[in-house]
Amino acid sequence: MKVLIVGGGSREHAITYAFAKSSYEPRIYAISPLRNPGIEKLCKESGGELIRGDILNPEKVSETAEKLGVDLVFIGPEEPLFHGVSDALEERGIPVIGLNSKASEIERSKAFMRRLMWKYKIPGRLRFKAFRSIEEAIAYINEYAESVAIKPARQVGGKGVKVISDVQAYLRKVKEEVKKKHTELIYEKFMRSHDDVVDKILIEEKVEGPEYTVQCFTDGKTVKPLPIVQDNKHAFEMEMGPETGGMGSISGRGGLLPFITEDEFKESVRIIEEVVKALRKETGTSFRGIISGQMMLTTLWGPTIIEFYSRLGDPEAVNVLPILKTDIVDISEAILSEKLHKIRIYFEDYATVVKAIAPRGYPNRKDLARGHVIRVNEEKIKRMGAEIFYGSVDIVNGKLITGGSRAVEIFAKGDSIEEAAEIAEKAVSYVESLDGWGLFHRSDIGSGVSLRRMIEMANLVRSVYSYRKSKGLFGKQIDWIPGRGKIGYEF
Ligand code: GLY
């Protein structure tokens, strides 16, 4: 059996790792723009190889898959899905795990996702407005918007979101200016170069609470969740600094997190199931791959959708794939034959922690973060009981060079999140810069203080949404308009 992995980051390294463990002993190939040494090693050991290539070119990827005669393609990142790589493979009759381009709209266009949730009245939806022009967005902000999240209306690597609280009337003018500036920045920095979505700016009501990711396999009908994970997006300790693709993530024993109840997890999966059903109806297509809810526990709904991914998260995939017990080939076959409902998926019962290590400059100055020589002592990391998953790195003249994004991710497991975090933290010191350029990571991820903070936040949110539910106020929003009083919105 031969498989082809599309993509070359830590998530794809974890996908390759899962295939390398398969009892079917597949020959593994990968296509990636950079030479990820972890993926390359696993490919070689299996008798396959890593091929450098453009993963956004549907023709090139499907041609490569056909030439290699692979039995299965597994697509890691979202952009190849948006560019139609899955569609091109299907046209050639090559089995592929990866949503088709129509279904991946659930991630690509945040306005499409919100409209779908409203049209089908799916719980966990937020009020929003989408704008095709920057002028319209700014005019709306000046006139109406109070506490809001301003977002690029397309998926742009999880970046560009600005949440602004507008409660102090005396700061109103200043806040208006901040909102306007950020809207302009989103457009210039993230949206000007994308012409594949009509909406450019999304303004959503602001919500607060602990966030978590529910990743699911799907055959377009059934949804099977993986252990729930919390990603930590901010660059620096205790949620400071700019948003990144994710600086590290945690997952608890029993597939849960210490601040999310089993009922909340089930409700989150139910929301994703409803979205999959609506997506099938709306796109008129069958689709096979991954769908993940990036969620928040809010006072409005309890489990609430912030975004959808049409793929596994990164680093979230690195928490769960190393502890996957069920053979990934069997899971892939169940997805492809639309028999996912027949298979049970097992994981080792461990808490896991992933810590990303990035070169200084990431995420805002990738130009500065690129091109630095680093060294990884794999043997020492393994001896600590951790594993390394290579991310944005390349091999140039035999040297390991940073690619500008998160360079490596350290995975560790334990009986508790804190235990796994301690192991990962110690292993971080075996990743070094060789040219004096600084590397950074977050030491707070998985620590007792950070967990207690999440638990307290979740308890507070839970008590409010439970109260609202008991009063029949679930899914209702009340706005106060001076001079007109209360206006109740039914969702
Ligand atoms: N960890 C966030 C993402 O995968 O986009």
Description:
By secondary structure, the chain is an alpha+beta fold. Helix 1 (about 10-20) packs parallel to helix 2 (about 35-45), helix 3 packs across helix 5 (about 85-90) and helix 8 packs antiparallel against helix 9. The longest helix has 23 residues, at about 450-470. The model has no long low-confidence stretch (mean pLDDT about 95). The chain binds glycine. The site of glycine has 8 residues, from loops.
In brief:
This protein has 491 residues and is of the alpha+beta class.
Secondary structure layout:
Layout: E1 2-6, H1 10-20, E2 27-32, H2 37-45, E3 50-52, H3 58-68, E4 72-75, H4 78-82, H5 85-91, E5 96-97, H6 105-108, H7 110-119, E6 128-131, H8 134-143, E7 148-152, E8 162-164, H9 172-191, E9 201-205, E10 211-218, E11 223-225, E12 230-231, E13 234-236, E14 240-243, E15 248-251, H10 262-283, E16 289-298, E17 302-309, H11 316-320, H12 328-336, E18 351-359, H13 366-369, E19 370-376, H14 378-383, E20 386-390, E21 393-396, E22 399-403, E23 408-414, H15 417-428, E24 431-433, E25 439-440, H16 448-470, E26 476-481, E27 485-490
Parallel strand pairs: 1-2, 1-4, 2-3, 4-5
Antiparallel strand pairs: 6-9, 7-8, 7-9, 10-11, 10-16, 12-15, 13-14, 15-18, 16-17, 18-23, 18-25, 19-22, 19-24, 20-23, 21-22, 26-27
Helix pairs in contact: 1-2, 3-5, 8-9
The structure holds glycine.
